[in-house]
UniProtKB/TrEMBL annotation:
Cofactor entry: a divalent metal cation
Keyword Transcription regulation found: yes
InterPro entries cross-referenced by the UniProt entry: HDAC_I/II, HDACs, His_deacetylse_dom, His_deacetylse_dom_sf, Ureohydrolase_dom_sf
Catalyzed chemical reaction(s): N(6)-(2E)-butenoyl-L-lysyl-[protein] + H2O = (2E)-2-butenoate + L-lysyl-[protein]; N(6)-acetyl-L-lysyl-[protein] + H2O = L-lysyl-[protein] + acetate; N(6)-acetyl-L-lysyl-[histone] + H2O = L-lysyl-[histone] + acetate
Predominant place of localization: nucleus
Subcellular location: Chromosome; Cytoplasm; Nucleus
Segments forming domain Histone deacetylase: 85-340
Protein name: Histone deacetylase 8
UniProt keyword annotation of Transport present: no
Family recorded in the similarity comment: Belongs to the histone deacetylase family. HD type 1 subfamily.
Gene Ontology CC: chromosome; cytoplasm; nucleus
Entry GO MF terms: histone deacetylase activity, hydrolytic mechanism; metal ion binding
Length: 403
């Protein structure tokens, strides 16, 4: 692939810094807008990594020229944007987070912590408010970059806290930057599509918009008894005017790249046809990857990249957010690859030497291989859910193109 960077190069290697994951990274955000002029593959679903590309003749690809601006949100000052936050989280909860910010006595205020969900998987940590507001502000800055047409794709890998409630923390999420960003997008765009690729159901995002057709939510996730958060079954479709605008694909262990993309493409093609979204937000949780500590799905970064690449070809503004991902090097591999796909460059398979290089052993490659575990998403299982989803979508009146 031929690439000409018109101004500055996006530092995709930064994404492979495992120290940049989670809370540590969240405290250090900045914005870097880069512009690349690139030739992209004609095949929308084509190979997304250099290993696969090496078997493809570059000369044989009939590429088309496209200019895509990508904003990578990474700026300390962005925390200030938080002052402009819509007051979505309940003020009392936000005030409590702020109170805890400089509190280093973990035993204090136990009762109130319980009240606001700050226990077990959402412990109070020093500077928690700074972290939560920086993450949210970064996602909002991404929204701002899209709305003002600074870019076509905005990325905040620290975002995607899809379980956070307006008045309590939940599932490692203290403030729901996704809901706040989607709300902000509805101010400008008529139809907002939210796609959740995390292993866990995007429960709080769905609940926030279950009553409105302004935001359609589509979540692909594991669903089985006792698995967090427990919602997101196929008959979970929204309410009132929002009925059938919540779409859920409850899946089983062992999901593969090929099957996942096939389901993704099938459902999203229909969603696009019926809903004609004017902007899209994708939560790219990486806990679906093979080797993740959740040990459920069997996906690789290329599989997830194919999904994102498919939506990129819709050519509508896109906000890419992070999410779960508990195998740090693999999560970094995934988000690095997704960044490259968004920018339109191909990366070398070799992980470059850097401070955390040894974490990428033993092969030090960008790609990872799936395991040979059994895929429990059998034809028989899928035949129970897929037709129902299509049937539900058929209940919606298609949006006419002019609207
Ligand atoms: Zn998750």
């Amino acid at each position: 692939m031929e690439v000409t960077a018109s101004r500055e190069t996006l530092k995709v290697d930064d994404c492979s810094d495992p120290n940049s994951r989670g809370i540590k990274r969240s405290a250090n955000l900045s914005i870097d807008v880069c512009q690349k002029q690139c030739k992209e593959e004609k095949d929308e679903t084509g190979p997304t990594c250099t290993k696969r590309q090496s078997s493809t003749s570059v000369n044989s690809q009939q590429n088309k020229l496209r200019l895509r601006k990508v904003a990578y949100v990474w700026n300390e000052e962005m925390g200030e944007v938080c002052d402009l936050l819509p007051r979505v989280p309940q003020r009392e909860y936000v005030d409590f987070l702020e109170f805890l910010n400089d509190e280093d006595d973990s035993e204090k205020e136990q009762e109130r912590k319980e009240e606001f969900g700050m226990n077990h998987d959402c412990p109070s940590v020093p500077r928690i408010f700074d972290v939560a507001k920086s993450v949210t502000a970064a996602s909002l800055r991404g929204v701002q970059a899209l709305v003002s047409n600074e870019c076509q794709v905005a990325i905040n890998w620290t975002g995607g806290w899809h379980h956070g409630r307006r008045d309590e923390a939940a599932g490692f999420c203290y403030m729901n930057d996704v809901v706040i960003s989607l709300l902000q997008l509805t101010q400008t765009y008529k139809r907002v599509l939210y796609i959740d690729l995390d292993l866990h159901h995007g429960d709080a995002v769905q609940d926030a918009f279950a009553h409105t057709p302004k935001v359609m939510t589509v979540s692909f996730h594991k669903h089985s008894p006792g698995f967090y958060p427990g919602s997101g079954n196929v008959d979970d479709v929204g309410h009132g005017r929002g009925r059938y605008y919540s779409v859920n694909l409850p899946l089983q262990d062992g999901m593969t790249d090929v099957l996942f993309f096939s389901l993704f493409k099938g459902v999203l093609m229909k969603v696009q046809k019926i809903y004609q979204p004017s902007v899209v937000v994708i939560q790219c949780g990486a806990d679906t990857l093979v080797g993740d500590h959740m040990n459920c799905f069997n996906l690789t970064p290329s599989g997830i990249a194919n999904c994102v690449n498919y939506i990129l070809h819709w050519n509508i503004p896109m906000l890419l957010l992070g999410g779960g991902g508990y195998n740090t090097p693999n999560t970094a591999r995934c988000w690095t690859l997704l960044t490259a796909v968004a920018v339109g460059v191909r990366l070398n398979s070799e992980i470059p030497d850097h401070e955390f290089f040894l974490d990428y052993g033993p092969d030090y490659q960008l790609e990872i291989s799936p395991s040979n575990r059994q895929n429990l998403n059998t034809k028989q299982y899928l035949s129970k859910i897929v037709p129902t989803i299509f049937n539900n979508l058929d209940q919606l009146k298609p949006v006419s193109k002019e609207k």
